Structures are given as structure tokens and as C-alpha cells.
Amino acid sequence: MICVVRHGQTVWNLEGRKQGWLDSPLTQLGIEQAKRSSKLINQAITEDIHKYNIIVSPLWRCLQSTSVICEELGIKYADCIVEEDLKEHGFGDWEGKTNEEIELEFPNGLKDREQNRIDYVVPNGESYRILYNRVEKIYNKYKNSNTIFICHEMVSKVLRSMMMGGIENMSRVEKHKQDSIFIFNNNDIKKMNKIIDSNV
């Protein structure tokens, strides 16, 4: 079984800034979302969670979320595996900027990207196809084992398009909200966002 988790809300998420390979810390809500993710993971995984690989993006927002999740689940943080190629879509010259700032500096760039989501390359950054090819190496490495990926929204989207058969399925992949996780088991993807616990 594979579990895909997105990091919690960050300061730049709150401000509407592209993060890419840059970073900003989790907000208090982001910390609470990481705790919520740990409850969803615990609900989804019925066997010994210590038998799962925990594969993490090297970016701080994911490492911070992972530390919270590990503490909540009683997992040694040191046992997690950091994979460089699991880092977020590279937004190049757009990183740290809001959509309004991007439009001022790169007129029609956002529109051009929207019209060609898979192959549009952000200035000095990546396209979805470049991201897909990068992340596919990590997916192939762990796809036949019990694995928890702690990553980013766009990384989650390409992972789930792989699970659905390929990059052509990108348009069918829903956004990954920070209060949910995705479970891939027996060729089926299921979203989990409800904690079955009357005390929570």
C-alpha cells in the first residue's frame, strides 16, 4: 500500500506565493494539519507502521511536517528516507512571488502555463513533464513496497497520475488539500479526509 501525504499549510501558502524549491515555515494551522495527517495515516494503515518506508522531500516544509507526523505516530524521524527528487515542482523565476507579481513581471506567463499545463516550462524552472520524469524515478524505486510519501501538491499530482497509468491522466487528478491523504491499494486510489473518532 502507498500513502501520499502533503505537507501542512505554510506562511507562503497563506500569502499565495509560489514556493517551488524555496521554502517557508509551517503556520500553526499547518502543524495541526500535520497532526491530522498522522491520525488519517493511523486510520488507513492497520498493520505495523514501522514496516513502511517513509519517503520525504528534502524541503523544510516537508521535513517539518514529517517530524510532527513521526512524533504523533511514535516513529523515529531518523528512520525516514529523504529523496532529493521528491522536491516540489521548480518554479524558477516565479518562486516567492504572488500571481499578481508574476503577471507584472511575466505578462501572460500564467495564462500560457494554464493552456499547456504539461509542457510549459516556467522561466528557469520546470514543466509538469520534467517534474513527472524526475519523480517517476522515486516512484519506481518504492512502488512495490509499503510506502508513505510526504511531499508537495504537484508532486502528489504526478504520483497519482502515475498510479492512474501515466501523465496523460494529469487533468483527471484532483488537488491535494492539506487536510487529506491519498491511499493507493489494489490499483485503486482513495482520498481520506475524515477522522473516525468521536473524541477528535
Lateral strand order in the biggest sheet:
3-2-4-1-5-6
What low-confidence regions span 5 or more consecutive residues with pLDDT below 50? none
Structural class of the secondary structure composition?
Answer: alpha/beta
Strand % is 5-15%
Biggest β-sheet description: 6 strands, mixed
| Count of folded domains | 1
Overall radius of gyration:
17 Å
End-to-end span in angstroms? Answer: 25 Å
Helical amount: 25-40%
What would you call the shape? Answer: globular
CATH T-level fold name = Rossmann fold
Word description of this protein:
The structure is a single chain. By secondary structure, this protein is α/β, with parallel strands linked by helices. It has a single domain, classed as 3-Layer(aba) Sandwich (Rossmann fold). It is 38% helix and 13% strand. It has seven helices and six strands, in the order βααβαβαααβαββ. It has helices at residues 11-15, 28-44, 60-73, 99-105, 109-115, 128-142, 153-163, and strands at 2-6, 53-56, 81-82, 147-151, 181-185, 188-192. The chain has a six-stranded mixed β-sheet with strand order 3-2-4-1-5-6, sandwiched between helices. Strand 5 and strand 6 form a beta hairpin. Helix 6 packs across helix 7. It is globular and about 50 Å long. The two termini are 25 Å apart.
